[in-house]
Backbone:
């Protein structure tokens, strides 16, 4: 069973005094896919970095799968919560994709055939077996995004946090990535400005603004509320219609 997430009254202030999170409360059920929406500076990425302990709340609490995100549980939390960053190059640094995907599990102590099986399963999950032997810098944008996802899936996380998954992808790469994410049986938090992607991938959306949650509901309902979108500096692409007819 994938892990659920509970965020309770979380506040966070950066060392320079910038208040980034203001009393954030939310919960995500196991295997739920939730889009995290909002303008730049809303606190979305800051919140994401709290989910596996990269950042620590100034006050409030977070739990993943019933385990508090704290120093004691940090190794287990980081195994359970996988982050895929907006820039795939941040996660691809080995001579080949295979070695990149193997890096995390090898650090957990996996070797030999057990390690090979873990890597093959992760690459298969992202339809990336054909570029396993290639250097990451020779991949297309979509292939890099899938390879970066494979490096996280190889750790067998229970929660996947994806920051701007469609950024810089062409339509084909975007379609491949959506198809890959739709079949992953794990909890997913998707930070995105791509509102059509949010609609297609995530049944539920949370809108943040100024460090707090301002709306939480079905993605279709929130995106149909033009007043809500305008108030939070969100905009559907020109000509995009929520009406299936």
Residues:
């Amino acid at each position: 069973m994938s892990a659920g997430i509970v965020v309770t009254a979380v506040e966070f202030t950066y060392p320079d005094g910038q208040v980034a999170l203001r009393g954030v409360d939310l919960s995500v059920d196991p295997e739920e896919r939730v889009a995290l929406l909002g303008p730049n500076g809303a606190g979305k990425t800051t919140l994401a970095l709290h989910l596996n302990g990269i950042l620590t709340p100034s006050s409030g609490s977070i739990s993943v799968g019933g385990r508090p995100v704290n120093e004691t549980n940090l190794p287990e939390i980081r195994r359970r919560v996988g982050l895929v960053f907006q820039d795939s190059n941040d996660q691809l640094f080995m001579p080949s994709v295979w070695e990149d995907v193997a890096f995390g599990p090898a650090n957990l102590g996996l070797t030999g055939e057990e390690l090979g099986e873990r890597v093959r399963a992760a690459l298969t999950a992202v339809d990336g077996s054909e570029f396993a032997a290639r250097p990451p810098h020779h991949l297309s944008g979509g292939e890099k995004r899938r390879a970066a996802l494979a490096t996280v899936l190889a750790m067998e996380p229970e929660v996947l946090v994806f920051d701007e998954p469609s950024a810089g992808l062409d339509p084909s790469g975007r379609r491949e990535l959506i198809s890959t994410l739709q079949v992953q049986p794990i909890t997913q938090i998707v930070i995105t400005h791509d509102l059509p992607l949010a609609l297609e991938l995530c049944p539920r959306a949370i809108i943040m603004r100024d460090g707090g949650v301002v709306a939480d509901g079905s993605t279709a309902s929130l995106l149909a509320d033009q007043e809500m979108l305008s108030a939070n500096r969100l905009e559907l692409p020109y000509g995009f219609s929520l009406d299936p007819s």
Summary: The beta strands are 5-13, 19-28, 33-37, 59-64, 67-68, 81-84, 159-163, 187-191, 204-209, 212-218. Residues 112-125 form the longest helix (14 residues). The chain has nine helices and ten strands.
